[in-house]
Amino acid sequence: MAGDMTKLTLETIARTGFGHDFGSFERSRPHPFVTAMVGTLSHAQRRNVLPPVLAPLLLRRSERRNAADMAYLNRTVDKVVAARRAADARDAPGDLLDRMLDVAHPDTGERLSAENIRRQVITFLVAGHETTSGALSFALHYLAGHPEVCARAREEVEQVWGRTEVPAYEQVAKLRYVRRVLDESLRLWPTAPAFAREAVCDTVLDGTHPMRRGAWALVLTMLLHRDEEAWGDRPEAFDPDRFTPAAVRARPPHVFKPFGTGARACIGRQFALHEATLVLGLLLRRYDLVPDADYRLRVAERLTLMPEGLRLRLVRRAG
């Protein structure tokens, strides 16, 4: 499931945001862009845990590989941008790439530089698929393992969408129970597992914990999402009704943070939630989800959290 969901979410952000087809489903192995992307981010993670004086010595070979990966990412995106610039403006799809190329700052008239656009596109492609694929994979795992939840979610899909119609954009947000399934999956396994904050001045946390200016605090999101004081006696249990409007109002406001927090929280949150809800609705309407009876959830810690070895059998539903 994780591999197929990664292909799906990469194609979704690439096609809707930048009009590019990576051909993911025609490949038996990940697209080289994905391989290079994983390589660069893994390299950055390794650098972050090594003292600066040791990193150049211990990562010499990795530095060369990283340079090659970065060059490939840059070339790929530069080709996509060049093709769009060369296309007839009358055929422009009006997507995110068009806006980057054509829209000027309303006050200064400044436009994004070529280098800025390249970096923005890479960022959106990376961040726009990896976390969403994990969220979908965990949600499908829980749906397959909880038949009563799956039946309730499918009933909502059929009531809101019908059995055959192509759902309209505004109908996706009406799948409120499906969204609760997604939120509860993100609570248990937030695919971005932590966020950090730096003290801008000397301060004291909660009246007892001094922090000097420049010190960092790391919030482990999974632990925040399983705090019994906020989530009750059985925070490990999967229960989408934790996200009914009444339950949400009864909780403190900052105990659910799967997309980070503050001004630097995920810029693509609404896109990801809409995409994931749509995908879950379509899969529920079209297929029965049959789990492997012997599978026990294992979580891989790669760039994000992802279920490891998860396989489901999908049986096409009649009608």
From TrEMBL:
PANTHER family: BIFUNCTIONAL ALBAFLAVENONE MONOOXYGENASE_TERPENE SYNTHASE, CYTOCHROME P450 FAMILY 4. Its cofactor is heme. The keyword Heme applies. It comes from Streptomyces alboflavus. InterPro entries: Cyt_P450, Cyt_P450_CS, Cyt_P450_E_grp-I, Cyt_P450_sf, Cytochrome_P450_Monoox. Gene3D superfamilies: Cytochrome P450. PROSITE patterns: CYTOCHROME_P450. Heme binds at residue 266. GO terms for molecular function: heme binding; iron ion binding; monooxygenase activity; oxidoreductase activity, acting on paired donors, with incorporation or reduction of molecular oxygen. Belongs to the cytochrome P450 family. This is Cytochrome P450. Pfam families: p450.
